[in-house]
Amino acid sequence: MSFEDIGEIRCGPGEARVFEHGWQSWSPTGAYRLTDTPPRPADETIQILAYRPETPVPQGAFQGEGLLAVEPGDGSVELWSAPSPLQVPSIRAREEGGRLVISADGPVRHHRAEGGLDQALRDWADTMTEKRAFPAVPPMWCTWYGYWDKVTDADVIDNLQRSERLGLGADMFLIDDGYEAEIGDWLEGRPEFGSLARAVDAVTGAGRRAGIWTAPFLVGHRSRTFREHPDWLVRDAYAGRMWDQELAVLDVTNPAAVEHLVDVFRTFRAMGISHFKLDFIYAGALAGGRHEDLDPIAAYRRGLELIRRGAGADATLHGCGAPMLPSIGLVDVMRVSPDIAPTLQPKSGDISQPSQLGARLTGAAREFLHARWWVNDPDCIILRPEVEAREEWAAHLAGTGGLRGSSDPIAALDDWGLETTRRLMVPTATDPS
Fold first, then answer.
1. For an engineered disulfide with 371, which of 35, 118, 264, 432 has Cβ 3.0 to 4.6 Å away?
2. Do 410 and 147 contact (CB within 8 A), yes or no?
């Protein structure tokens, strides 16, 4: 759809701020002065991986995905937003002669509020979904930031034992990327990992919950799934490049692909896994030719419903790299920021990419979603000595109500890191932020 002007607002140039809400977990989100240059993708691949691919932002414009808010400088707040999680327009603001002209490529709701931006965002979030109770989620330990994709079953078991011995408090152990043979071949193990069953049995045998990582809507070009089932893929959908390979998209409207997807999660659940981190799931909302004529957001939501069918009604679904508004009501936990990293600044200069700075800025800007739409995941506690600005990262996490999860090799923590990690490892807050 093309953009149409839908309103305008007079602003004080030195006082006005525009709040851009990003499309998915990793998309930068925050409030900016009219003279600021908001974060934009460093290249075309990052546009696909971390922003909304179909609506790049023109130079000189502000843009929110499903939400754009303006503080003109007079104490009021004007918000333009999606009518529902099923229909998420891109909403723009451009400055013209002392006023901001608002445009959108789909239907929007308009709200006017008093009391400042923070309160207006909380009130708006309350209107987007029915109020529900979010129980406290215990803290976890995750393999990713300590072992990356070279993790082994012995690493999981070693850290399980250390957590128990040192009283770290981890209730769930999440086996992240690195156990699988290829992206898309989730039930085939990487030989160097060892035995997934052995790792899961050790966790559940210790009375802890087991979690697993997948990128369920991605199919890597090296995978057996890609080679043997081209009919399972969304036609002309390009999900970017990662893991040194091109990425295709699983078609969740193809009956055979549906059976495969449900079976993957049913199999994991039968192993004793109850927490499912669903990563890179922006792919499920990419445009392309599907077996059934379904719009991308509807296809994405159907994909999450199929995962729930396989994982079970009582499983924990944990979104990441996920379109934000389209996930409302379908995930229990949601990453609300880019990935943390041992470095303060992102290597590309683009804060959608892994860094402490990007995780802090976007995570803080989305704190208002916690216990309203889901349990926020601000990303993991990493506090080993080589982590830059680790004191600042610990302070950021202490100020959030969301999921706490250590991801250091526990043996690598010094006294300060271990003591601080132990202090941060508490259940999630049950009241909205």
1. 432
2. no
Q: What is the pTM of this model?
A: 0.98
Q: Which residues are bridge partners to 160 per DSSP?
A: none
Catalytic (active site) residue 314: no
Strands 405-406 and 140-142, how do they pair?
parallel
Of 26, 100, 97, nearest in space to 62 by CA: 100
Cα–Cα distances in angstroms (integers) from residue 23 to residues 90, 135, 145, 280, 326, in the given order: 9, 26, 25, 13, 9
Q: Is the dihedral of CA 252, 225, 288, 353 positive or negative?
A: positive
Task: Give the DSSP H or E segment for 396.
Answer: helix 390-398
Q: Dihedral, CA atoms, 143, 147, 151, 155, nearest 10 degrees?
A: -70
Contact 155, 161 (CB under 8 A): no
Token look-up 């799934």 returns 225
Residue among 153, 251, 279, 350 flagged as catalytic? 279
Cα four-point dihedral sign 103, 106, 107, 112:
negative
| Residue 238 near residue 246 (C-beta atoms within 8 A) | yes
If we measure between CA atoms, which residue out of 121, 123, 29, 70 comes closest to residue 365?
A: 29
**Which among 187, 272, 265 has a CA at the least distance from the CA of 223?**
187
pLDDT digits (tens, 9 = 90+) for 240-275: 999 999 999 999 999 999 999 999 999 999 999 999
Token representation of residue 356: 């402490």
- SS3 breakdown of the chain: % helix, strand, coil, rounded to 5? 30, 25, 45
Question: For residue 238, which of 16, 47, 78 has the smallest C-alpha distance?
Answer: 47
Question: Is 236 a catalytic site residue?
Answer: no
Between helix 356-365 and helix 390-398 the angle, nearest 10°, is 20
Q: What is the band of 181 on the pLDDT scale with cuts at 50, 70, 90?
A: very high
Amino acid present at 95: E
User: What is the rounded distance in angstroms from the CA atom of residue 212 to the CA atom of residue 189?
Assistant: 13
SS3 1: coil
Q: Which residues contact 270 (CB under 8 A, 6 or more apart)?
A: none
pLDDT tens-digit map of 296-307: 999 999 999 999
Residue among 153, 177, 339, 379 flagged as catalytic? 339
